[in-house]
Design a protein that fits this description.
By secondary structure, the chain is mostly helical. It has a single domain, classed as Growth Hormone, Chain: A, CATH 1.20.1250. About 80% of the residues lie in helices and about 0% in strands. Helix 7 runs antiparallel to helix 8. The chain starts with 11 loop residues before the first helix and ends with a helix.
Length: about 425
């Protein structure tokens, strides 16, 4: 059944809205983890490194699973995969609320949230790319801005729920939210504009070339290209540090005499910066050139981590949180658009899924390694400083890859 939109309103924006809700609910629930860390440590008598592994396993799954969910979405449709994912997130959180050991939290949270976001994220972001060409950066940024808004809204909300009802009921509420709102939003997703009788950006179907919307490289061709290898390497080294703040910024702040109720607001500041980055920097990337913009956001994240490495008070940590959120949001917004620019829309979800396996490995190792380094040394300086250096390296790789691609393209022109 076709879902109609008001006359004159391009349905692609409804797809963007659905993707926004999916990323808001999925990642918003995932990034509440720092709010639960102290309660899980206390109730299950676990070290900070051991509890951090819960988030790392989940992060590995929700980025790593894109290599499966992306191609499945290209073949079966994004709506089915996203709805399945949101259902798994809800069930995983509800199961986590009943856990009686840290191992049960690993199973419920890591598998539920990890598999759920893994099923939903890449298909939701990938489908948006097919609906736009001229405004692809803006549309992609708006779709993934749900992650930023979720980071802004959900951790403080979870903290309030924990304070009022306890961590178990807080997980229960989040699980029901994912089942009702998350799954409901997925029903608005339509896989490509031709199914609505239009082309990308609302152009007439005949002018857009109809089925040509799905033109592009095969997955095999894309992953063998130098451009993809460069993108993968840059994402891999960057991701070792990118997700450290979502687990360790709050306990770092508390260790530096910031009250827990104030420290949780730092995650909200990441959300503010991230939301701004996704809403506004997507259109900047469209004008600036998305390859150059990618280099800029890696450099910005390196700068922000350098600020955190020497931060000792709330003001410096707030500066880090806002800057990191801004550049992190821009990075998440521009990556799917860059992939589609270079490899086309035919297999975009599958290619994005493979690219995000790089982020999966970084997410698995980075936060947990930071936790274990803290357990041994009592300090976060080494993992934070390393995160700055790795993002600077990512900027260098992206710049070199972009220049090499430009040379190859110019030589190929008649």
């Amino acid at each position: 059944m076709r879902r109609s939109a008001p006359a004159g309103l391009f349905y692609g924006w409804f797809v963007v809205g659905a993707a926004f809700v999916v990323t808001f609910v999925g990642f918003g629930c995932a990034y509440t983890f720092s709010s639960f860390l102290e309660s899980l440590q206390r109730d299950f008598h676990a070290s900070r490194g051991a509890v951090s592994l819960v988030f790392s396993f989940a992060g590995f799954l929700y980025f790593g699973l894109g290599v499966i969910s992306g191609p499945l979405a290209d073949r079966w449709g994004a709506r089915k995969l996203t709805a399945l994912g949101m259902g798994l997130v809800g069930l995983g959180l509800i199961a986590a609320s009943q856990a009686q050991s840290i191992a049960q939290v690993y199973t419920a949270y890591s598998l539920g949230v990890g598999l759920g976001v893994g099923c939903a994220y890449v298909p939701a972001v990938g489908v948006v790319q097919r609906w736009f060409v001229r405004r692809r950066g803006l549309a992609s940024g708006l779709a993934v801005s749900g992650i930023g808004v979720g980071t802004l809204v959900m951790p403080p909300s979870a903290t309030a729920l924990i304070a009022t009802f306890g961590w178990r009921d807080a997980y229960l509420v989040l699980g029901l939210l994912a089942l009702v709102i998350g799954v409901g939003a997925c029903l608005l997703i339509v896989d490509e504009p031709a199914l609505r009788g239009t082309g990308p950006d609302g152009t007439p179907l005949e002018a857009a070339g109809g089925p040509q919307v799905r033109a592009g490289m095969s997955i095999r061709e894309a992953v063998r290209s130098r451009r993809f290898i460069g993108l993968y390497a840059a994402c891999l080294v960057s991701a070792f540090g990118v997700f450290v703040p979502f687990v360790h910024l709050l306990p770092y702040a508390v260790d530096h005499q910031v009250a827990p109720t104030t420290a949780v607001l730092l995650l909200g500041m990441i959300g503010v910066g991230s939301t701004a980055g996704r809403f506004f920097l997507g259109s900047v990337a469209d004008r600036m050139g998305r390859d150059r913009f990618l280099v800029a956001v890696y450099s910005g994240m390196a700068l922000s981590f350098a600020i955190w490495a020497i931060a000792g008070g709330l003001g410096a940590l707030a500066t880090f949180a806002l800057l990191f959120g801004l550049f992190y949001g821009g990075w998440v917004a521009v990556l799917p658009a860059v992939v589609t620019d270079h490899f086309g829309g035919k297999n975009v979800s599958g290619i994005i899924g493979i690219l995000y396996t790089s982020v999966a490995f970084g997410t698995l190792l980075g936060p947990s390694a930071a936790g274990f380094v803290y357990d041994v040394s009592g300090s976060y300086f080494l993992p934070v400083a390393s995160s700055a250096a790795l993002n600077a390296l990512a900027a260098s790789i992206a710049a070199a890859t972009s220049r090499a691609h430009a040379v190859v393209t110019s030589r190929a022109r008649p």
